[in-house]
Design brief:
- The chain is of the alpha/beta class and 292 residues long.
- It has a single domain, classed as Metallo-beta-lactamase, Chain A.
- It has seven helices and 17 strands.
- It has a nine-stranded mixed β-sheet with strand order 2-1-9-10-11-12-13-14-15.
- It is globular.
- The chain binds zinc ion.
- Zinc ion binds next to helix 2.
- InterPro entries: ComA-like_MBL, Competence_DNA_uptake, Metallo-B-lactamas, RibonucZ/Hydroxyglut_hydro.
- This is Metallo-beta-lactamase domain-containing protein.
């Protein structure tokens, strides 16, 4: 596969990130470096976007945003952690096009120069937000996610795509088409699950895909549709992160899920009560800082 160039002319310092497909084909894409922090530490911000998901990964000047929450609040959250004059993001991952993940990303595409997009394109999804997204994304280099892809962040850090599985057909439920990724830096792993439900959890386990991780972004805002006992016993996380809005209409997080975490002594953070939560990795250890 030959490299695709961004349609936009990027006039900032450029560097290459390599996306390595399972077949060892290397697809390189151009990304941009700006004033992002380069302190040798890998930062993951679980942004306080209300009822929705948004995670910003920052490492060695590279920024990856996964989902954008339900509205424009993501912009003020990004403003808190990104340098004032930084108006570019190297890679945006849309896990799936539900409103609580895509709406904020539409605002992000309006405000930031987004060099690359990774998504699981759903031809039959017809929501107005998805139509708008598909119009706005043409200024970025867009790639289809498939298991086995590796996004190399440099310095030993990388993001591996675990789901959707290569060659599999799309699921009926939008949630179950969510991209699942594993962020790895040295001794630590963070599993990022989108809104995938029990069916996908069973599939990953059945296919013996390595989902063991120290840190887990709990799927679907702590809904009881996900995070089965079997899944937690395969991931064996020490810490979990739940992104959700205060007093949300969905009853998230479900008490059963909190009990499952507690019974395994998995400490959890939740953005409705903890505000923005920052995870800091140095390759050997991790620490967590929350707003409240
Ligand atoms: Zn969601």
């Amino acid at each position: 596969m030959s490299p695709r160039l961004p349609k936009k002319n990027i006039s900032k310092t450029e560097w290459l990130v390599f996306l390595i497909i399972a077949s060892a084909t290397i697809l390189s894409f151009t990304a941009i470096e700006t004033g992002a922090r380069t302190d040798g530490l890998l930062h993951v911000y679980f942004l306080d976007v209300g009822q929705g998901d948004a995670q910003l990964i920052e490492f060695e000047g590279k920024q990856v945003l996964i989902d954008g929450g339900p509205d424009g609040k993501v912009l003020s959250e990004l403003g808190q952690v990104m340098p004032f004059n930084d108006r570019s993001i190297d890679l945006v991952i849309l896990t799936h096009p539900d409103a609580d993940h895509i709406n904020g990303l539409i605002k992000v595409l309006g405000r930031y120069e987004v060099a690359n997009i990774l998504e699981n394109f759903l031809e039959n999804h017809k929501s107005p937000a998805y139509r708008e997204w598909n119009k706005l994304k043409i200024d970025s280099t867009v790639m289809q996610a498939v298991s086995g892809q590796i996004i190399d962040l440099g310095g030993g850090a990388y993001i591996k795509v675990l789901y959707p599985i290569a060659g599999s057909s799309q699921q009926a439920k939008t949630n179950n088409n969510s991209i699942i990724t594993m962020l790895v830096y040295g001794d630590n792993e963070l599993l990022l699950t989108g809104d995938t439900e029990a069916r996908v959890e069973r599939e990953l386990i059945g296919r013996e895909i390595n989902i063991d991780a120290d840190l887990l972004k709990v799927a679907h805002h702590g809904s009881k549709t996900s995070t089965t006992d079997e899944f937690l016993d395969s991931v064996t996380p020490e810490i979990a992160f739940i992104q959700l809005g205060e007093d949300n209409n969905y009853g998230h997080p479900h008490p059963t899920i909190l009990e499952r975490l507690q019974s395994r002594a998995i400490k959890y953070y939740r953005t409705d009560t903890d505000g923005m939560v920052e995870l800091i990795l140095d390759g050997q250890n991790y620490k967590i800082v929350s707003d409240k």
